[in-house]
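Hey, quick one: can you model this chain's 3D structure?
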Amino acid sequence: MADGMEDRVHDSLLAFTDFLYAVVFGMIVGKIFEDVINATGHWGDKLGKIALVGGVFYFLAWDWLHGRLLTLKNPYRGYWRFFLEIIIACCGYGAALGAVAASPSLLLYIAVILLLGVWWSTLTIREYPQSIDLRELRFVIRYQLVGFTFLLVFSATYLAQVGTRIHPWVSIPYVLWGFLFVFIYELFIERPPGMLGGPGVPFVNREIMTAARRKIFRPKKGEE
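Sure thing. Here's the predicted structure for all 224 residues.
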């Protein structure tokens, strides 16, 4: 009886976070149409903002889907991870607002998301010290700490040297950095086939990723 109730509570928490993310994604789409596409302004500024919002949108979706896959295999054993996911969703909306305004604040929000992901992964390891996802969770902690530090230093430098606005021509490098972040993550963490493998790298299929992984990480002679 108690186990059945635990499962129902767990499913309710997952449903709530999924609904919250759906609301956040819907609000992001609404903001891009209302404040960028349908608003007056130079087309170059609009394209820059659309690129930034598109990059943020994909990052949030990618992060949420991978988090959900990990949670399905490592269910909540308390409420801490649940509340962290709520905060991450709120920070995601803040990052989207920063992208709509072409503000470097989006970098700070993404940095916070990475740091919260480190905390989330640490809690998951504590709850499941023998998890089959232990390698990925440990990689998340190391990789996202590096990403958090880089974004924190870069955003502070940008604000001090450039200003409080991301110029349209800078938007593309920002999106490419996000692409590179996802690419490196997927390169180190081999995915299972099908839906359980997650969304992957934009415009790069799994066959290309597998070939790149084998070429980069192939064993040296005598180590096969």
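One thing worth noting: The chain has a mean pLDDT of 87.
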